[in-house]
Amino acid sequence: MDFKGEKMKAKTLYLILILLVLVAAIITLILLSRKDPLNGPESIAFDEVGNRFLISNTLGKSIIALSLDEQYSPFLDEGLEEPRGIIIHSGKLYVADKTAIKIVDPEKAVIIDTLKIPGAVMLNDLAFTKTGIIYTTDTGGDCVYVIDPMANKIQKLTSPLLKKPNGIVYDMPRDQMFVVCFKEKSPILSVSTLDNRISIFKDTIYDYLDGIAIDDLGRIYITSWGQDMIFEIPQEQNRYLPTYKNITDAADIFYYLPANQLIVPLFSDNQIIRLQLE
């Protein structure tokens, strides 16, 4: 028997097996690196210092960074329960996270403070006034909370009009917040930031509204899950325009001024799309 030959064959088979294992490991790493990191993207903010977008990854319980050349990277994946609305104010990232607002240092990507909201059920979107007051919608609690961080005061706003309040945006020229609700034929609500009076700004025929944004010309954009579209209220505010159709489950849209674009998270499709405005 040629023991030497058999030994060489065994050694060759062993080397081939090792090579196959290494190739399989490399392929796995490549596939994992290409895997879409988004899992229920809800809201977007722009970090000017880091020159990147930050995305709340609601179902992934994390926040993901997106570079201007559309490369994803991890940002924060600890200390969050259900991150939804996010906004950057005075160099800090504020995150509506179920029953509290988490304050994050964008440079260090760490939570530095927590504003607990007693009684909150499902905090959703949030916006700041020019004086630093926070307004945040509670979709599960049918209310809006007004928070003065400096005075450590919290006020709960309720109204029959507030049925699953969702998106919110600050209309600074008129000292009001616009709020849309996740319900059938949701009106666009106005919340005065002077006296917190809640009223109907405009009735609509659209269902299950989620996000709302205002561009630099004063045009208002709103996402509708019921009609799978983003509709627009032009400057004249005298009609609705179905500007972008066949957009499914668009969440909290973000107006990116430098490129004059709407940055749109698609919650169910786990995608971010950029829509160029005219």
TrEMBL record:
Keyword NAD tagged: no
Segments crossing the lipid bilayer: 12-32
Record has Membrane as a keyword: yes
Pfam families: SGL (PF08450)
Signal peptide stretch: none
Keywords annotated in UniProt: Membrane, Transmembrane, Transmembrane helix
Top-level taxon of the source organism: Bacteria
Protein name: SMP-30/Gluconolactonase/LRE-like region domain-containing protein
Annotated source species: Cloacimonas acidaminovorans (strain Evry)
